[in-house]
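Q: Convert this sequence to structure tokens.
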Amino acid sequence: MKASKFCVFLDAGHGGIDAKKKLPYNYTTYPSKCAQHNNAKFHGYGWFFEGVFNREVAAKIEQYLIDWGFSVVRVYDPVLDVSLTKRVAKANINAQNYEASLYLSIHGNAATSPNARGFEVFTSKGKTRSDIYAEFLFKEVQEAFPKWMYRMDTTDGDKDKEESFFVITQTNMPAVLSENGFFTNYHDALMMFDPVFQNTLALSHARAVVDYAKTQGVIF
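A:
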């Protein structure tokens, strides 16, 4: 199978920036999915907007995959917070045009405690092909950031956590949701805001796609 016959459906969670409005109301998901830190600028006056981070990383993943010959379909909007139903429906309808596909949802995490930080990956419950990609992704990210904190559930022999999130249970293809740091943690937020970190994180996701695609018959 050629890489072009393998499609990655990219989902950048939550909303983006509406240039017609003023901070922080220009963030279309405000007041949720964001946090304000008093000792940094971030996206403006200390505000860190998860949806903006998600889009920056997703765009970088997309460019890597396109450069390597994969097909990519965005299921998110540059500004609006598209409903989960519409995102999944777009992926399921378009998946019919490809021999194989993968749904990849990019997120930042949040917690009540400002001390929570680290990386984690979610798949649907049970053993599925999604677990294969999740393991490759964990490996790539851990190699890229060996000193970071990793949150995992190894009770079933792999590192991903299992949940019933809509985008990973209602898709017709393997689906993985990655939580790429806690924007409610100042130190994680600094990392997540750094373009170098974003690029390395995106490269890790893209390399994991290559690893997974090879197991599905893609020849490079």
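DSSP finds six helices and eight strands in the chain.
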